Amino acid sequence: MQPPSFIAFTGVDRLELLPGLKALSARYPIEWGVLVDPAQEDSALFPTAKIRDALLAERDLRWAAHVCGEAAKAIVASPLTAPPPPAGIQRVQVNHSFKGSTPVQTAAARDYGRRLGMRAVLQCSAAFPVSQTGVDWLYDVSFGTGARPDRWPAPPPAEGPFCGYSGGIGPDTVTEILARIAAPDGALYWIDMESGVRTDGAFDLAKCEAVCRAVYG
Fold it and tell me: What angle, 0 to 180 degrees and rounded to 10, lies between the N-to-C axes of helices 205-216 and 18-25?
């Protein structure tokens, strides 16, 4: 069974987490995700722009911006003029819809990412849409709620798009879920989690480490 290329932990929202983020990143392949929505700044999961920018200034870490709300809709509507995500990220996930993406929306996210020189990520809730290329695909029926799907789609072939999995993944479930995904040797994919690595609403680095140990040893 092939382990994921990296693990994405989404919802980093406090500056005091930085030493722990760096310590874990030195041992395991990790992408750290920050949620971006100006309308929700300084609410649960959404750091203020000041805190977010201070986090992203740590350029030795791998960062992704998960853009939500009106900012995500603006990317889909006008990818060549929409405001760029915060500086310091390597991927941008465009959370414009919980109902999947049409080819037009896929093209918009692809063009936005190409304009910025980074990969764009879109969500899907069924089989990976391998014919819609130029973006990375995250299978997600949870949307931060911790809900687990009844089944997991097979990873696409190596020549297909880069794909990931989310939904109910955490320290107590990751081993079982990876066994159910059953990625063959050589498969390239990632896993993403948000609520599964929070305790009483707070981002929990101990849970992140427990996931990494379960996956990589």
Answer: 10
- CA–CA dist 217, 208 (Å, integer): 13
Classify domain 6-216 by CATH number: 3.20.20.70
pLDDT 10s digits, 77-125: 999 999 999 999 999 999 976 556 688 889 999 999 999 999 999 999 8
Question: pTM for the full model?
Answer: 0.94
pLDDT tens readout for residues 48-72: 999 999 999 999 999 999 999 999 9
Return the sign of the alpha-carbon dihedral for residues 209, 201, 149, 5: negative
Give the C-alpha separation, 108 to 150, whole Å: 30
Query: Which residues are CB-contacts of 5 (< 8 A; sequence separation ≥ 6)?
Result: 29, 188, 189, 190
Taken as a whole, the chain contains a residue count of: 217
Could you report the per-residue pLDDT of 128-147, keeping only the tens digit for each? 988 888 999 999 886 666 67
Q: How far apart are CA 150 and CA 120, in angstroms?
A: 27
How far apart are the C-alpha atoms of 172 and 151, rounded to whole Å? 18
Contact 130, 139 (CB under 8 A): no
